[in-house]
Write a structure and sequence with these properties.
This protein has one domain. It has a 3-stranded antiparallel beta sheet. With 100 residues, the protein is of the alpha+beta class. The N and C termini lie close together (11 Å). The protein is built from 4 helices and 3 strands. It is elongated.
């Protein structure tokens, strides 16, 4: 199974910040306004979208929680993004665990 990195970790590995990476990917129409990737990039194995549930606020949605989607960049996608952006992948310290 390929490693998956959240957008913040992927940004560090590409030598930039999370907000700058997201803004650039939106500008290039790789991510949409909800920070979700194009279906063609998911099909190509560059990104993975995982459904998550937020249940931390009992006042939200009558205590039933909220389902949301979180975008992850695969190892293949990280190399592709580095090429697209014209940068090199920087290794992050091993204390940074890969997001699951």
């Amino acid at each position: 199974m390929p490693h998956k990195h959240d957008l913040a970790t992927a940004a560090k590995m590409l030598g930039t910040g999370r907000n700058r990476l997201i803004a650039e990917l939106k500008r290039r129409k790789i991510l949409d306004c909800n920070r979700l990737p194009r279906q063609s990039d998911v099909d190509a194995g560059r990104f993975h979208v995982q459904l998550r549930e937020h249940t931390g606020n009992m006042l939200m949605n009558n205590g039933n929680g909220v389902i949301y989607a979180k975008t992850f960049v695969t190892s293949k996608g990280l190399l592709w993004l580095a090429k697209e952006l014209g940068v090199e992948v920087v290794q992050v310290p091993s204390t940074q665990e890969h997001a699951a």
